[in-house]
Amino acid sequence: MKFHKEGYTSLAITVLVIFIANAIADYYDAPEVIKWIIYILSAFLFITIVQFFRSPTKQIVVQEGTILCPADGKVVVIEETEENEYFHDRRLQVSIFMSPINVHVNRNPISGMVSYFKYHPGKFLVAWHPKSSTDNERTTVVVKNANGVEVLFRQIAGALARRIVWYVKENDHVTQGSEFGFIKFGSRVDLFLPLGTQIDVNIGDKVVGGKTIIGKL
């Protein structure tokens, strides 16, 4: 287990706030009950930030032809839909909701070359809102594997998650399971897969990024 680099600033601010709050309580000789409340709140805040930005070390086994889960969370959508940004045709959508208690690292579902990338500024609707995938702040990444099959995946911000981070750009070569981004404090990741893809998860399943197999191409 390690602390993710995206959390360094948040952790530094948290430690500073805790230090100032405790210093003020000591300086003004606050009653013991007030000091204990500050101690408890400080510990809670510190543990929360560490939990938000934890990044478990994982041994990724690359499996050609499989779609590796891009994020920790729960499967909330499995349906055939129209993808209108890149493919402009029918695709199989699988959506994973990331709660604030999940690991927030996002991982490449397949290996290949990034054939398309775009960042979209937008709203911050709750992640389960029907229009969140088209109206919210988001990124769209398409990776083409060695057989020419393309998979689109999309980071979507939510009401709480207002910071999307990405590490890829067009023409990059990526490896299945490697980090392609990070969503601070949760939200969701959508996958758009070719029709006919074998799906090995069900709605409501708890999935693990870099470990759970979503399906097979």
UniProtKB/TrEMBL annotation:
Membrane-spanning parts: 7-24, 36-53
Lineage: superkingdom: Bacteria
Protein's pathway: Phospholipid metabolism; phosphatidylethanolamine biosynthesis; phosphatidylethanolamine from CDP-diacylglycerol: step 2/2
EC code: 4.1.1.65
InterPro entries in UniProt: PS_Dcarbxylase, PSD-A
Pyruvic acid (Ser) carried by residues: 187
A Pfam family that the UniProt record links to this protein: PS_Dcarbxylase
Cofactor mode of binding and number, as noted: Binds 1 pyruvoyl group covalently per subunit.
The reaction(s) this protein catalyses: a 1,2-diacyl-sn-glycero-3-phospho-L-serine + H(+) = a 1,2-diacyl-sn-glycero-3-phosphoethanolamine + CO2
Localization (cell): Cell membrane
Membrane topology designation: Peripheral membrane protein
Free-text function comment from the UniProt entry: Catalyzes the formation of phosphatidylethanolamine (PtdEtn) from phosphatidylserine (PtdSer).
Quaternary structure annotation from Swiss-Prot or TrEMBL: Heterodimer of a large membrane-associated beta subunit and a small pyruvoyl-containing alpha subunit.
Protein name: Phosphatidylserine decarboxylase proenzyme
Organism, as annotated: Sphingobacterium kitahiroshimense
Classification lineage: Bacteria, Pseudomonadati, Bacteroidota, Sphingobacteriia, Sphingobacteriales
